[in-house]
Amino acid sequence: MSEAADVCMASNGVIANYGMGVTQHRHGVETARMIVNLLLPRGNIGKRGAGISPIRGHSNAQRQRTVGISEKTKLVPFDRPAEPYDFEPPRWDA
């Protein structure tokens, strides 16, 4: 823990990533608050290259892999993400 604290203190920006295990735990609210409280004193909320980043299943919340990851290509809206990056995503089923 002290090594992790040293890294946080020496960093210009800290991003705290956590998975669903934090939020689904019976003390998830308190744990998420502690993560925020770890980031706040050094200004790591609302700062470029820093912040809190829950890694969860939100991209599939509507049962469609809106981030473009699917073994069923007909379910994925390819055109919008392809335009800004000027590429043609593969459209065949795995």
Distinctive features:
mainly alpha; 2 domains; two-stranded parallel ribbon; 94 residues
SS-derived structural category: mainly alpha
pLDDT below 50 for ≥5 consecutive residues: which ranges?
A: none
Quote the beta fraction.
Answer: 5-15%
Task: Classify the helix fraction into a percent range.
Answer: 25-40%
Count helical runs: 4
What value does the Rg take, in angstroms? 18 Å
Q: Could you explain the architecture of this structure?
A:
This protein is mainly α. The protein folds into 2 domains: 1-56, no CATH class; 57-94, no CATH class. It contains 4 helices and 2 strands. The chain has helices at residues 2-10, 20-24, 28-39, 79-85; strands at residues 15-18, 51-54. It has a two-stranded parallel sheet with strand order 1-2. The mean pLDDT is 78.
SSE blueprint and pairings:
Blueprint: H1 2-10, E1 15-18, H2 20-24, H3 28-39, E2 51-54, H4 79-85
Parallel strand pairs: 1-2
What is this entry, summarized?
The protein is elongated. 35% of the residues lie in helices and 9% in strands. The mean pLDDT is 78.
